[in-house]
């Protein structure tokens, strides 16, 4: 039995939160899902006799939208277009999302988790969906190389800081 002056601790010996309050930092994926998927094969069946290898244009976009105080939807958008001189071979647009739970994280760590770590977790699943969609359209599966989302995040953060530093410098004649 604890005396009035004793401090309650958890199993690790850390002071216990008052009244069972959960004040530990945490972040994780609650669920993930296809929000939107579009596959177009506009020149079928003629496209299957084209001899030219199509040029691939692959675009990524990451977005985050707060659902409530502790849950944010992270969206990984992938747009893939294969074109040749004859026209579009195929187009795939995927919006792959996750509900991310975040509690008690500093703002900079929350931002990094939403725009670097969550997309890194989502990417292998989105990559498989795109590969299957291209294969199901009658083409060899599109195998996207892994992406260093953390490296891209750091590059964008540095570019933003450099831009802000440049804007803060007075103009000279």
Describe this structure in words.
This protein is α+β, with helices and mostly antiparallel strands and about 170 residues long. The chain has one domain: SecB-like (Bacterial Protein-export protein SecB), CATH 3.10.420.10. Helices cover about 30% and strands about 35% of the residues. The chain contains 2 helices and 4 strands, in the order E-E-E-E-H-H. The protein has helices at about 105-135, 150-170; strands spanning about 25-40, 55-65, 70-85, 85-105. Strands 1-4-3-2 form a 4-stranded antiparallel β-sheet. A hairpin with a 2-residue loop joins strand 3 (about 70-85) and strand 4. It is elongated, with a radius of gyration of 23 Å. The termini are far apart. The relative contact order is 0.16. The model has no long low-confidence stretch (mean pLDDT about 90).
| Biggest pleated-sheet summary | 4 strands, antiparallel
CATH superfamily: SecB-like
What is the number of domains?
1
Average per-residue pLDDT, rounded, comes to: 88
CATH topology, what is it called?
Bacterial Protein-export protein SecB
Q: In terms of structural class, how would the helical and strand content be classed?
A: alpha+beta
- At CATH level 2, the architecture is Roll
Distance between the termini: 76 Å
H/E topology pattern: EEEEHH
What is the general shape? elongated
**How many helix segments?**
2
Oligomer: single chain
Number of strands: 4
Radius of gyration: 23 Å
Which percent range describes the beta-strand content? 25-35%
Highest-level CATH class: Alpha Beta
Uncertain runs are none
Task: Give the proportion of residues in helices.
Answer: 25-40%
Strand order of the largest sheet: 1-4-3-2
